[in-house]
Amino acid sequence: MSTLEWPADPSDAQVAAVLALADAATDTDGMAPFSEATTLGLRRLPQHGAAAGLRLATIGHAELVGAAVLADDGSAEAAVRPDARGRGLGRRLIDALLQERPDAQLWAHGDLPAAQALARAYDLQVSRNLWRMQRAVDAEPAIRPRAAGAPDAPVVPAGFAARSFVPDQDAQAWLDLNATAFAHHPEQGRMTMDDLQDRIAQPWFDPEGLLLIEDTAVSPHRLVASHWTKVAEPDSGEGEVYVVAVDPAYQGRGLGRAVTGLGLAYLASRGLQTIDLYVEGDNGPAVATYTRLGFERTSIDVMYSRAVHPMLTP
Protein backbone atom coordinates (compact mmCIF):
# COMPACT_ATOMS: atom_id res chain seq x y z
CA MET A 1 0.00 0.00 0.00
CA SER A 2 1.35 3.43 -0.94
CA THR A 3 2.35 5.66 1.95
CA LEU A 4 0.68 9.00 2.59
CA GLU A 5 3.10 11.68 3.77
CA TRP A 6 3.08 15.35 4.68
CA PRO A 7 6.62 16.33 3.55
CA ALA A 8 7.91 19.06 5.85
CA ASP A 9 10.22 20.50 3.20
CA PRO A 10 9.01 19.45 -0.26
CA SER A 11 11.78 19.23 -2.82
CA ASP A 12 11.76 20.62 -6.34
CA ALA A 13 11.36 17.05 -7.57
CA GLN A 14 8.31 16.42 -5.38
CA VAL A 15 6.64 19.61 -6.52
CA ALA A 16 7.44 18.82 -10.15
CA ALA A 17 5.83 15.39 -9.71
CA VAL A 18 2.69 16.97 -8.24
CA LEU A 19 2.44 19.44 -11.12
CA ALA A 20 2.92 16.60 -13.62
CA LEU A 21 0.15 14.66 -11.87
CA ALA A 22 -2.10 17.72 -12.14
CA ASP A 23 -1.35 17.98 -15.88
CA ALA A 24 -2.30 14.33 -16.35
CA ALA A 25 -5.56 14.86 -14.46
CA THR A 26 -6.32 17.95 -16.54
CA ASP A 27 -5.79 16.04 -19.79
CA THR A 28 -8.18 13.29 -18.65
CA ASP A 29 -10.86 15.40 -16.96
CA GLY A 30 -10.78 18.53 -19.10
CA MET A 31 -10.55 20.45 -15.82
CA ALA A 32 -7.49 21.39 -13.77
CA PRO A 33 -7.56 19.94 -10.22
CA PHE A 34 -5.61 22.88 -8.77
CA SER A 35 -6.36 26.58 -9.10
CA GLU A 36 -3.90 29.06 -10.55
CA ALA A 37 -3.14 30.40 -7.06
CA THR A 38 -2.39 26.90 -5.80
CA THR A 39 -0.17 26.11 -8.78
CA LEU A 40 1.85 29.29 -8.28
CA GLY A 41 2.06 28.58 -4.55
CA LEU A 42 3.37 25.07 -5.22
CA ARG A 43 6.15 26.48 -7.36
CA ARG A 44 7.16 28.73 -4.46
CA LEU A 45 6.94 25.95 -1.89
CA PRO A 46 10.50 24.50 -2.03
CA GLN A 47 12.08 27.92 -1.57
CA HIS A 48 9.59 29.49 0.83
CA GLY A 49 8.39 26.52 2.88
CA ALA A 50 5.57 27.41 5.29
CA ALA A 51 5.74 31.02 4.12
CA ALA A 52 4.18 29.87 0.85
CA GLY A 53 0.93 29.36 2.79
CA LEU A 54 0.50 25.76 1.63
CA ARG A 55 1.03 22.25 2.97
CA LEU A 56 1.44 19.29 0.65
CA ALA A 57 0.28 15.70 1.17
CA THR A 58 1.50 12.98 -1.18
CA ILE A 59 0.73 9.31 -1.80
CA GLY A 60 3.24 7.07 -3.51
CA HIS A 61 6.59 5.33 -3.24
CA ALA A 62 8.62 5.29 -6.43
CA GLU A 63 5.87 7.12 -8.31
CA LEU A 64 3.46 9.77 -7.09
CA VAL A 65 -0.14 8.61 -7.48
CA GLY A 66 -2.02 11.21 -5.43
CA ALA A 67 -1.56 14.63 -3.90
CA ALA A 68 -3.47 17.17 -1.87
CA VAL A 69 -2.76 20.79 -1.06
CA LEU A 70 -3.99 22.48 2.12
CA ALA A 71 -3.87 26.28 2.34
CA ASP A 72 -3.54 28.31 5.52
CA ASP A 73 -7.14 29.48 5.15
CA GLY A 74 -8.41 25.88 5.20
CA SER A 75 -9.20 25.60 1.50
CA ALA A 76 -7.95 22.37 -0.03
CA GLU A 77 -7.59 20.61 -3.37
CA ALA A 78 -6.72 17.03 -4.24
CA ALA A 79 -5.88 14.98 -7.31
CA VAL A 80 -5.32 11.32 -8.12
CA ARG A 81 -3.37 10.21 -11.17
CA PRO A 82 -5.88 8.94 -13.75
CA ASP A 83 -4.33 5.49 -14.09
CA ALA A 84 -4.39 5.03 -10.29
CA ARG A 85 -8.04 5.83 -9.72
CA GLY A 86 -10.49 3.38 -8.24
CA ARG A 87 -8.14 2.31 -5.44
CA GLY A 88 -9.52 4.48 -2.65
CA LEU A 89 -6.74 7.07 -2.94
CA GLY A 90 -9.19 9.97 -3.09
CA ARG A 91 -10.71 8.86 0.21
CA ARG A 92 -7.27 8.61 1.80
CA LEU A 93 -6.46 12.15 0.73
CA ILE A 94 -9.76 13.50 2.08
CA ASP A 95 -9.26 11.57 5.33
CA ALA A 96 -5.84 13.19 5.71
CA LEU A 97 -7.15 16.68 4.94
CA LEU A 98 -10.06 16.43 7.37
CA GLN A 99 -7.83 15.04 10.10
CA GLU A 100 -5.50 18.00 9.69
CA ARG A 101 -8.31 20.52 9.33
CA PRO A 102 -11.80 19.34 10.32
CA ASP A 103 -13.09 22.65 8.99
CA ALA A 104 -11.33 22.25 5.63
CA GLN A 105 -13.23 23.43 2.57
CA LEU A 106 -12.55 21.16 -0.39
CA TRP A 107 -12.63 22.49 -3.94
CA ALA A 108 -14.17 20.32 -6.65
CA HIS A 109 -13.23 22.04 -9.90
CA GLY A 110 -15.93 21.27 -12.42
CA ASP A 111 -17.87 19.42 -9.71
CA LEU A 112 -17.25 16.15 -11.54
CA PRO A 113 -19.28 13.02 -10.65
CA ALA A 114 -16.39 11.46 -8.70
CA ALA A 115 -16.15 14.56 -6.54
CA GLN A 116 -19.89 14.57 -5.92
CA ALA A 117 -19.74 10.92 -4.86
CA LEU A 118 -16.93 11.62 -2.39
CA ALA A 119 -18.84 14.58 -0.98
CA ARG A 120 -21.87 12.38 -0.39
CA ALA A 121 -19.75 9.68 1.23
CA TYR A 122 -18.36 12.19 3.73
CA ASP A 123 -21.69 14.02 4.17
CA LEU A 124 -20.10 17.26 2.97
CA GLN A 125 -22.24 20.23 2.04
CA VAL A 126 -21.83 22.87 -0.62
CA SER A 127 -20.43 26.01 1.00
CA ARG A 128 -19.51 27.97 -2.11
CA ASN A 129 -20.12 28.06 -5.87
CA LEU A 130 -17.79 29.65 -8.41
CA TRP A 131 -19.26 29.95 -11.88
CA ARG A 132 -17.33 29.94 -15.11
CA MET A 133 -19.19 31.98 -17.72
CA GLN A 134 -18.39 32.38 -21.40
CA ARG A 135 -19.50 34.29 -24.46
CA ALA A 136 -18.47 34.58 -28.08
CA VAL A 137 -16.54 37.74 -28.92
CA ASP A 138 -18.89 38.56 -31.79
CA ALA A 139 -22.08 37.81 -29.86
CA GLU A 140 -22.59 41.45 -28.88
CA PRO A 141 -21.65 44.50 -30.95
CA ALA A 142 -20.60 46.34 -27.78
CA ILE A 143 -17.38 44.31 -27.55
CA ARG A 144 -16.42 44.06 -31.20
CA PRO A 145 -13.24 45.91 -32.23
CA ARG A 146 -14.14 49.53 -32.94
CA ALA A 147 -12.65 52.41 -34.82
CA ALA A 148 -11.37 55.22 -32.63
CA GLY A 149 -14.16 57.54 -31.65
CA ALA A 150 -16.97 55.23 -32.68
CA PRO A 151 -20.21 56.19 -30.90
CA ASP A 152 -20.54 52.81 -29.14
CA ALA A 153 -16.95 52.75 -27.81
CA PRO A 154 -16.62 52.46 -24.01
CA VAL A 155 -16.97 55.92 -22.50
CA VAL A 156 -14.97 56.93 -19.43
CA PRO A 157 -16.97 59.40 -17.32
CA ALA A 158 -15.86 63.03 -17.17
CA GLY A 159 -13.16 63.65 -14.56
CA PHE A 160 -11.58 60.24 -15.11
CA ALA A 161 -8.98 58.92 -17.53
CA ALA A 162 -8.02 55.44 -18.72
CA ARG A 163 -4.58 53.99 -19.43
CA SER A 164 -2.65 50.73 -19.23
CA PHE A 165 -0.72 49.37 -16.26
CA VAL A 166 2.97 50.25 -15.81
CA PRO A 167 4.53 47.50 -13.63
CA ASP A 168 7.27 49.55 -12.00
CA GLN A 169 4.90 52.41 -11.29
CA ASP A 170 1.46 50.98 -10.53
CA ALA A 171 1.99 47.73 -8.62
CA GLN A 172 1.33 49.05 -5.10
CA ALA A 173 -1.57 51.26 -6.17
CA TRP A 174 -3.18 48.30 -7.93
CA LEU A 175 -2.73 46.11 -4.84
CA ASP A 176 -4.32 48.81 -2.67
CA LEU A 177 -7.31 49.05 -5.03
CA ASN A 178 -7.61 45.27 -5.17
CA ALA A 179 -7.57 44.97 -1.37
CA THR A 180 -10.24 47.65 -1.03
CA ALA A 181 -12.49 46.31 -3.78
CA PHE A 182 -12.26 42.72 -2.53
CA ALA A 183 -12.07 43.35 1.21
CA HIS A 184 -14.57 40.56 1.91
CA HIS A 185 -13.44 38.11 -0.79
CA PRO A 186 -11.89 34.92 0.65
CA GLU A 187 -8.92 34.87 -1.77
CA GLN A 188 -8.69 37.88 -4.05
CA GLY A 189 -8.58 40.49 -1.30
CA ARG A 190 -5.52 38.86 0.28
CA MET A 191 -3.30 39.12 -2.77
CA THR A 192 0.23 40.21 -1.79
CA MET A 193 3.03 41.86 -3.71
CA ASP A 194 4.64 38.42 -4.11
CA ASP A 195 1.37 37.10 -5.56
CA LEU A 196 1.20 40.01 -7.98
CA GLN A 197 4.84 39.66 -9.03
CA ASP A 198 4.32 35.92 -9.59
CA ARG A 199 1.61 36.76 -12.11
CA ILE A 200 3.56 39.56 -13.72
CA ALA A 201 6.38 37.04 -14.28
CA GLN A 202 4.09 34.62 -16.15
CA PRO A 203 4.49 34.33 -19.94
CA TRP A 204 0.87 35.36 -20.48
CA PHE A 205 1.15 38.68 -18.61
CA ASP A 206 0.56 41.71 -20.83
CA PRO A 207 0.59 45.16 -19.19
CA GLU A 208 -1.42 46.54 -22.11
CA GLY A 209 -4.22 44.20 -21.09
CA LEU A 210 -4.43 45.54 -17.53
CA LEU A 211 -6.63 48.62 -17.98
CA LEU A 212 -6.76 51.32 -15.31
CA ILE A 213 -9.10 54.22 -14.65
CA GLU A 214 -7.86 57.14 -12.54
CA ASP A 215 -9.63 60.03 -10.86
CA THR A 216 -7.93 63.00 -12.53
CA ALA A 217 -9.75 65.57 -10.38
CA VAL A 218 -7.38 64.86 -7.48
CA SER A 219 -3.63 65.27 -7.24
CA PRO A 220 -1.90 62.93 -7.46
CA HIS A 221 -4.30 61.01 -9.65
CA ARG A 222 -6.03 58.19 -7.79
CA LEU A 223 -6.49 54.68 -9.20
CA VAL A 224 -10.19 53.86 -8.78
CA ALA A 225 -10.98 51.01 -11.19
CA SER A 226 -9.20 48.34 -13.17
CA HIS A 227 -9.85 45.47 -15.54
CA TRP A 228 -7.12 42.85 -15.78
CA THR A 229 -7.57 40.73 -18.88
CA LYS A 230 -5.76 37.47 -19.53
CA VAL A 231 -4.89 35.52 -22.67
CA ALA A 232 -3.14 32.42 -21.35
CA GLU A 233 -2.80 30.68 -24.72
CA PRO A 234 -3.29 32.96 -27.74
CA ASP A 235 -3.60 30.00 -30.11
CA SER A 236 -6.62 28.74 -28.15
CA GLY A 237 -8.70 31.74 -29.20
CA GLU A 238 -9.83 32.22 -25.59
CA GLY A 239 -9.41 35.29 -23.42
CA GLU A 240 -10.47 35.94 -19.84
CA VAL A 241 -11.97 38.68 -17.74
CA TYR A 242 -9.38 38.03 -15.05
CA VAL A 243 -10.09 40.66 -12.37
CA VAL A 244 -12.46 43.66 -12.43
CA ALA A 245 -12.11 45.99 -9.45
CA VAL A 246 -13.85 49.25 -8.55
CA ASP A 247 -13.11 51.27 -5.43
CA PRO A 248 -16.31 51.08 -3.32
CA ALA A 249 -16.07 54.82 -2.68
CA TYR A 250 -16.53 55.37 -6.44
CA GLN A 251 -19.35 52.93 -7.11
CA GLY A 252 -22.42 54.29 -8.85
CA ARG A 253 -20.45 56.49 -11.26
CA GLY A 254 -20.42 54.14 -14.24
CA LEU A 255 -16.80 53.13 -13.74
CA GLY A 256 -17.52 49.40 -13.55
CA ARG A 257 -19.31 49.47 -16.89
CA ALA A 258 -16.61 51.64 -18.45
CA VAL A 259 -13.65 49.57 -17.30
CA THR A 260 -15.42 46.32 -18.19
CA GLY A 261 -16.09 47.64 -21.68
CA LEU A 262 -12.48 48.72 -22.11
CA GLY A 263 -11.22 45.28 -21.17
CA LEU A 264 -13.70 43.46 -23.39
CA ALA A 265 -12.82 45.70 -26.32
CA TYR A 266 -9.12 44.99 -25.72
CA LEU A 267 -9.74 41.24 -25.73
CA ALA A 268 -11.78 41.55 -28.92
CA SER A 269 -8.88 43.45 -30.54
CA ARG A 270 -6.67 40.40 -29.94
CA GLY A 271 -8.64 38.39 -32.51
CA LEU A 272 -10.07 35.95 -29.97
CA GLN A 273 -13.20 33.84 -30.45
CA THR A 274 -14.45 33.53 -26.85
CA ILE A 275 -14.13 35.31 -23.53
CA ASP A 276 -14.39 33.57 -20.15
CA LEU A 277 -14.78 34.82 -16.61
CA TYR A 278 -15.26 33.47 -13.11
CA VAL A 279 -17.84 34.90 -10.73
CA GLU A 280 -19.18 33.88 -7.33
CA GLY A 281 -22.45 32.07 -7.87
CA ASP A 282 -24.14 33.92 -5.00
CA ASN A 283 -23.20 37.34 -6.38
CA GLY A 284 -26.55 38.07 -7.95
CA PRO A 285 -25.78 41.59 -9.25
CA ALA A 286 -22.53 40.46 -10.92
CA VAL A 287 -24.16 37.39 -12.46
CA ALA A 288 -26.99 39.59 -13.77
CA THR A 289 -24.51 42.09 -15.24
CA TYR A 290 -22.52 39.43 -17.03
CA THR A 291 -25.68 37.73 -18.25
CA ARG A 292 -26.81 41.02 -19.79
CA LEU A 293 -23.43 41.18 -21.53
CA GLY A 294 -24.15 37.84 -23.15
CA PHE A 295 -22.22 35.51 -20.86
CA GLU A 296 -23.64 32.08 -20.05
CA ARG A 297 -22.57 29.61 -17.38
CA THR A 298 -20.46 26.79 -18.82
CA SER A 299 -19.18 25.04 -15.69
CA ILE A 300 -19.08 25.37 -11.93
CA ASP A 301 -16.45 24.91 -9.24
CA VAL A 302 -17.93 23.83 -5.92
CA MET A 303 -16.47 24.04 -2.44
CA TYR A 304 -17.54 21.29 -0.05
CA SER A 305 -17.22 21.23 3.71
CA ARG A 306 -18.71 19.77 6.84
CA ALA A 307 -21.70 21.58 8.31
CA VAL A 308 -19.54 24.22 9.95
CA HIS A 309 -19.73 26.89 7.24
CA PRO A 310 -22.69 28.99 6.09
CA MET A 311 -24.36 27.72 2.96
CA LEU A 312 -23.96 29.89 -0.14
CA THR A 313 -26.49 29.48 -2.90
CA PRO A 314 -26.20 30.54 -6.55
From TrEMBL:
<comment type="subunit">
    <text>Monomer.</text>
</comment>
<dbReference type="GO" id="GO:0008999">
    <property type="term" value="F:protein-N-terminal-alanine acetyltransferase activity"/>
</dbReference>
<keyword id="KW-0012">Acyltransferase</keyword>
<dbReference type="GO" id="GO:0035447">
    <property type="term" value="F:mycothiol synthase activity"/>
</dbReference>
<feature type="domain" description="N-acetyltransferase">
    <location>
        <begin position="160"/>
        <end position="314"/>
    </location>
</feature>
<feature type="binding site">
    <location>
        <position position="230"/>
    </location>
    <ligand>
        <name>1D-myo-inositol 2-(L-cysteinylamino)-2-deoxy-alpha-D-glucopyranoside</name>
    </ligand>
</feature>
<dbReference type="InterPro" id="IPR050276">
    <property type="entry name" value="MshD_Acetyltransferase"/>
</dbReference>
<feature type="binding site">
    <location>
        <position position="240"/>
    </location>
    <ligand>
        <name>1D-myo-inositol 2-(L-cysteinylamino)-2-deoxy-alpha-D-glucopyranoside</name>
    </ligand>
</feature>
<keyword id="KW-0677">Repeat</keyword>
<feature type="binding site">
    <location>
        <begin position="78"/>
        <end position="80"/>
    </location>
    <ligand>
        <name>acetyl-CoA 1</name>
    </ligand>
</feature>
<feature type="binding site">
    <location>
        <begin position="244"/>
        <end position="246"/>
    </location>
    <ligand>
        <name>acetyl-CoA 2</name>
    </ligand>
</feature>
<dbReference type="InterPro" id="IPR017813">
    <property type="entry name" value="Mycothiol_AcTrfase"/>
</dbReference>
<dbReference type="GO" id="GO:0010125">
    <property type="term" value="P:mycothiol biosynthetic process"/>
</dbReference>
<protein>
    <recommendedName>
        <fullName>Mycothiol acetyltransferase</fullName>
        <ecNumber>2.3.1.189</ecNumber>
    </recommendedName>
</protein>
<dbReference type="InterPro" id="IPR016181">
    <property type="entry name" value="Acyl_CoA_acyltransferase"/>
</dbReference>
<comment type="similarity">
    <text>Belongs to the acetyltransferase family. MshD subfamily.</text>
</comment>
<comment type="function">
    <text>Catalyzes the transfer of acetyl from acetyl-CoA to desacetylmycothiol (Cys-GlcN-Ins) to form mycothiol.</text>
</comment>
<feature type="binding site">
    <location>
        <position position="187"/>
    </location>
    <ligand>
        <name>1D-myo-inositol 2-(L-cysteinylamino)-2-deoxy-alpha-D-glucopyranoside</name>
    </ligand>
</feature>
<dbReference type="InterPro" id="IPR000182">
    <property type="entry name" value="GNAT_dom"/>
</dbReference>
<feature type="binding site">
    <location>
        <begin position="251"/>
        <end position="257"/>
    </location>
    <ligand>
        <name>acetyl-CoA 2</name>
    </ligand>
</feature>
<keyword id="KW-0808">Transferase</keyword>
<feature type="binding site">
    <location>
        <position position="278"/>
    </location>
    <ligand>
        <name>1D-myo-inositol 2-(L-cysteinylamino)-2-deoxy-alpha-D-glucopyranoside</name>
    </ligand>
</feature>
<feature type="binding site">
    <location>
        <position position="36"/>
    </location>
    <ligand>
        <name>1D-myo-inositol 2-(L-cysteinylamino)-2-deoxy-alpha-D-glucopyranoside</name>
    </ligand>
</feature>
<dbReference type="Pfam" id="PF00583">
    <property type="entry name" value="Acetyltransf_1"/>
</dbReference>
